[in-house]
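Re: [ENG-882] Designed sequences occasionally contain unexpected residues at chain ends

Forwarding the minimal case from QA. Structure tokens:
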């Protein structure tokens, strides 16, 4: 057992030394390729520890192991192409609470709780739980008297996403404003990146309350900021969010332009566009634009592409169901030709919804709203 534990601890330390740390608060585009090469190894380590817990002489948790799980969860939280977010943060959470009390660190506890909040947003679609976990993380940071720490802005950010996803937009706006108070007035890249994210979240908050002009202004500011720090991921996400805004604003031509700009950005990103969730989300927006413009063939092709990307990169069942629902709507544009395909897509969307925990979705409700509620506000 001693040799097995020693080998496990050595593997953890080696991966922790090589893998990008969550301490930077943002994932630089240049780190995607560096970190991606270790994801399967980290997943294997997580499974090894988890599976050992029900056996004689289980592997012991360490602070390094908990930090590795948290670092990996943070790395994949916006682009979980390997489908491991739930695995690593659930394992990190279980391991942390098996640590000896003397080894536990309150800030690590806060980080894990925030990552559970993000998991609930991204992978589970459980916005109530996300709010609870996010507020637990925030409470710890407040106990540690870190009111101006940049980590606080991440807490405000993700709790706001949960609240916006639940339709509690004024509460979300209050938290986004608190975050902005911390971030404004600084010109270093980290503050600018975090303020760019705040503008993105604020734009969605505003267009959810039908303040389309205010939302557009936030996105214009975010675009300037993302251009300054040259992030293809941020730029593409801003353009697809603008497309979403213009669809809501009944400006399909403007939405179409934003889809094209997002595509151009992804094409210039090298290998990463092919392994990024954002490529699937852009195809989703492109299909929605084509449907608005009554371009049936384009609507079907783009929705099929979105579904293929979602399956290939192991998007959560709720997000996959929403993509398939959009494909169904594209087929329904020409039921004389695509009646069977539309029904097949409808049944597949329902099958995917059945994979969700009981009570998460009402299978009798097949409205657009029901499918929107399967994903958080950032990708609705």
């Amino acid at each position: 057992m001693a040799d097995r534990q020693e080998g496990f601890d050595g593997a953890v330390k080696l991966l922790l030394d090589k893998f990008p740390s969550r301490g930077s608060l943002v994932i630089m585009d240049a780190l995607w390729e560096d970190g991606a090469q270790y994801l399967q190894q980290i997943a294997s380590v997580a499974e090894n520890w988890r599976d050992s817990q029900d056996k004689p002489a289980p592997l012991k948790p360490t602070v390094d192991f908990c930090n590795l799980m948290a670092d990996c969860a943070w790395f994949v939280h916006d682009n979980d192409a390997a489908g491991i977010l739930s695995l690593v943060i659930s394992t990190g959470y279980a391991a942390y609470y098996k640590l000896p009390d003397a080894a536990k660190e309150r800030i690590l506890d806060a980080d894990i709780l925030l990552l559970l909040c993000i998991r609930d947003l991204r992978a589970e679609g459980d916005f109530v739980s996300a709010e609870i976990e996010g507020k637990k993380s925030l409470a710890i940071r407040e106990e540690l008297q870190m009111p101006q720490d940049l980590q606080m802005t991440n807490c405000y950010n993700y709790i706001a996403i949960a609240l916006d996803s639940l339709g509690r937009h004024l509460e979300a706006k209050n938290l986004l404003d608190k975050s902005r108070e911390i971030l404004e007035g600084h010109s270093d890249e980290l503050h600018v990146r975090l303020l760019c994210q705040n503008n993105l979240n604020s734009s969605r908050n505003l267009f959810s309350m039908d303040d389309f002009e205010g939302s557009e202004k936030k996105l214009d500011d975010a675009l300037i900021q993302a251009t300054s720090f040259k992030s293809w991921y941020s730029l593409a996400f801003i353009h697809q969010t603008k497309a979403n805004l213009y669809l809501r604003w009944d400006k399909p031509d403007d939405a179409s332009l934003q889809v094209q700009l997002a595509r151009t950005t992804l094409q210039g990103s090298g290998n990463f566009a092919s392994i990024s969730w954002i490529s699937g989300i852009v195809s989703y927006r492109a299909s929605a634009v084509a449907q608005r413009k009554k371009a049936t063939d384009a609507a079907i092709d783009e929705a099929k592409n979105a579904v293929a990307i979602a399956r290939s990169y192991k998007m959560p069942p709720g997000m996959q169901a929403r993509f398939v629902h959009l494909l169904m709507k594209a087929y329904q544009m020409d039921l004389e030709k695509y009646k069977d395909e539309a029904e097949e897509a409808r049944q597949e969307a329902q099958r995917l919804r059945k994979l969700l925990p009981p009570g998460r979705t009402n299978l009798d409700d097949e409205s657009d709203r029901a499918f929107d509620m399967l994903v958080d506000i950032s990708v609705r």
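QA comment: On inspection the terminal residues look reasonable. The mean pLDDT is 94. Proposing we downgrade this to a documentation issue.
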